[in-house]
Amino acid sequence: MHIDRRAFLATLGSAAVVEAMSSEARADALEHYLIAQLDKAPAAKTSDVRSGTGALFGGPSPSGVRVPLAALAPMPDQPTLVDFLRLRGTPGIGNHILQSAGDALKKGEPDETVLACLLHDFVLNLMKPDHGWWGAQMMEPYVSEKVSWAIRHHQALRFYADSSVGYEYPELYVRIFGKDYAPAPYIKSTYEYARKHKWYMDARMITVHDLYAFEPGVKVSIEPFLDIIGRHFRQPKEGLGFDGSPVAHMWRTLNYPNNPL
Ligand SMILES: [Fe+2]
Ligand SMILES: [Fe+2]
Prior knowledge:
about 260 residues; mainly alpha; about 50% helix
């Protein structure tokens, strides 16, 4: 996908504002900017909502694009992962994760990598800061330890090149943000830990397929992933949000995003 550097930087504000942003915030801004290009929503001023607000709640991308808040379809009494993907995902994020999983499937990745790609950014509908950690936690009771580990660590790995798999995202960051680009210390130490881990490549491949998942106009159906979800996502019979798991509230919050308390 072509990135208009000037247009992107303009979405962030003045040079002083960009200068004051941490590297992590800038990188997140870029990811959200790219996802926003997949949304067909009109631009809107969003100064009344913090940037970290999840997309389902009207949270803006840094480009100022917000998905208009339309009425939500009712959820089934025992909602499944697929119900959440279909009924509580916003279009830009949904498109992005389906495209990344589609790329993984097309390239013959193992089931768990395809699943990790499919789930890696879903949590952006709920919460944006530290989305790797939030996203992993949300999925943890229902997927293998390896899949949640990969989701958690993709956030840090995307800042660091790995030529063995052709991952050059950091080069893109250098082009956009300049040579002084440096991830926050907690991201760096997480990367250093993950780099030596036996599941490093599982997280790394999320970042690789991420590169092919910002194509406007490309729609990927969820159908090809239903078997993989069935085999590798432990759908609770009570429904997500109602199974008493430590993360049930996260699913309920997406189910009932208008509850006042
Ligand atoms: Fe991500
Ligand atoms: Fe992503």
